[in-house]
């Protein structure tokens, strides 16, 4: 069984219905030289990849504009959660948001529930600022 076979299994079980609802269509499939691979999708608003990194399937999002710049769906979840949170969050509350993990079901729900928000923050006018914010949150998460 190849890495993309494993990804396809996860896609069919958890994501197919959601991706169909969001108009996400496959545009690239690759089995890497090692223990990895990916299947990439896109719609009129963003790109998304399911990536097998040594047996761990990750979901990443990229704007449509410029080079592909995939970032983890959990960072997008953190960004959107922090945007709607009060400004006076404690550091521990912020760390909890930054450390939130999403299972596949929660990822599919996140995509459905936040399609319009993702469309807006990843449009041509906002995507560079969004990627900068995601990178900053990633650095905070790493600390």
Would you give an account of this structure?
This protein has helices at residues 3-21, 73-84, 91-98, 104-113, 115-121, 127-142; strands at 25-31, 36-42, 46-53, 56-63, 71-72. It is α+β, with helices and mostly antiparallel strands. The chain has one domain (3-142). A five-stranded antiparallel beta sheet has the order 1-2-3-4-5. Strand 4 and strand 5 form a beta hairpin. It starts with a helix and ends with a helix. The mean pLDDT is 93.
Q: What is the overall silhouette?
A: globular
What is the rounded distance between the termini? Answer: 37 Å
| Number of DSSP strand runs | 5
Estimated share of beta-strand residues: 15-25%
Which structural class best describes the helix and strand composition?
A: alpha+beta
Mean pLDDT metric? 93
Q: Tell me about the largest β-sheet.
A: 5 strands, antiparallel
Poorly predicted tracts of residues: none
Integer-rounded radius of gyration: 15 Å
Q: How many discrete structural domains?
A: 1
For the largest beta sheet, what order do the strands appear in spatially? 1-2-3-4-5
Run of helices and strands: HEEEEEHHHHH
Helix content: 40-55%
Number of helices: 6
Defining traits:
alpha+beta; five-stranded antiparallel beta sheet; 143 residues; 5 strands
In short:
The protein is an alpha+beta fold and 143 residues long. The chain has helices at residues 3-21, 73-84, 91-98, 104-113, 115-121, 127-142, and strands at residues 25-31, 36-42, 46-53, 56-63, 71-72. A five-stranded antiparallel sheet has the order 1-2-3-4-5.
């Amino acid at each position: 069984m190849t890495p993309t076979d494993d990804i396809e299994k996860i896609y069919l079980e958890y994501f197919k219905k959601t991706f169909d609802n969001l108009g996400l269509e496959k545009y690239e499939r690759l089995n890497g030289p090692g223990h990895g691979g990916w299947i990439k999708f896109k719609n009129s608003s963003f790109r998304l990849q399911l990536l097998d990194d040594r047996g761990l399937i990750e979901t990443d999002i990229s704007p449509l504009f410029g080079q592909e710049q995939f970032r983890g769906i959990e960072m997008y979840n953190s960004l959107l959660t922090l945007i709607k949170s009060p400004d006076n969050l404690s550091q521990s509350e912020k760390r909890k948001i930054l450390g939130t993990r999403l299972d596949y079901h929660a990822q599919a729900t996140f995509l459905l529930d936040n399609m319009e928000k993702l469309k807006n923050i990843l449009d041509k006018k906002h995507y560079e600022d969004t990627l900068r914010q995601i990178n900053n949150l990633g650095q905070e998460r790493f600390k």
